[in-house]
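Review form for a predicted model. The reviewer records the input and the model, then writes brief findings.
Reviewer: anonymous (R2)
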Amino acid sequence: MQFKINFKSDKDIILPFQYNHILQGSLLSMIHDEKYAEFLHNRGYTHDKRNFKLYTFSRIMGQANVDREKKEFHFGKICALYVASMDNKLIHQVFTDFTDKQSNLRWKNNIITTHSIDILEPPVLLEKDEIIVKTVSPITTYSTLYDIDHTKKIYYYSPYEKEFQQNIAANLKKKYFAFYGTYPKDESFQIVPIKDVKACVLTYKGKLTKGYTGIYAIKGSKEMLNTALCAGLGNRNSIGFGMVLFIRRCENKNDL
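Model under review:
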């Protein structure tokens, strides 16, 4: 499921360029079931000793002025955040926080109020489908490589390398298994960059991550596409990478 949280503040919302950890913390703070919050934060769902949180979120949506000298975004008094999760319990917790308390959140030096929450209507997918999506947070996928002197390096794949698609497809299958305990019957998946593809580098708690935004065509089974929309594409979804929104179905063969 995907939803949009609309925020407001009495003062202009000012955040540093690297704010993913602030959003992740505020999202988890809306979960008042302590055991579930601890589960999401520390463990998540597992596949072959790997943990998947199975949620993701967007960059902040809203008009922003950029202060390059202070390395800050100035968003004004209203903004929004898209969130997606395979587990409806997360959505229930966020809605409970909103309806019961409408509590304030602290984003660094800003006091934010949840103004409203909109559920996004999911697309009615065919058993095998082709759709166009746009990123609302960059997609990242990578491999860990070692030099001859055993120095570890992270190599981030671009959407124009075959490993980009291979890694994302394999990752989606693992996420599906982690949640449902079985692999999808049809594991086929394809992703093709369409336009506006841009590289960007974000920092999360001092750790650099390279990702790619843009418009993409994705093709696959209903199970794989739903997983992509609800759990995100690629890696590091729970710190704000890989969320995509449905735009439309592919209309011709040139889309894919």
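Findings: The helical segments are 20-29, 34-42, 88-100, 162-180, 222-231.
Further findings: The longest helix spans residues 162-180.
Recommendation: see findings above.
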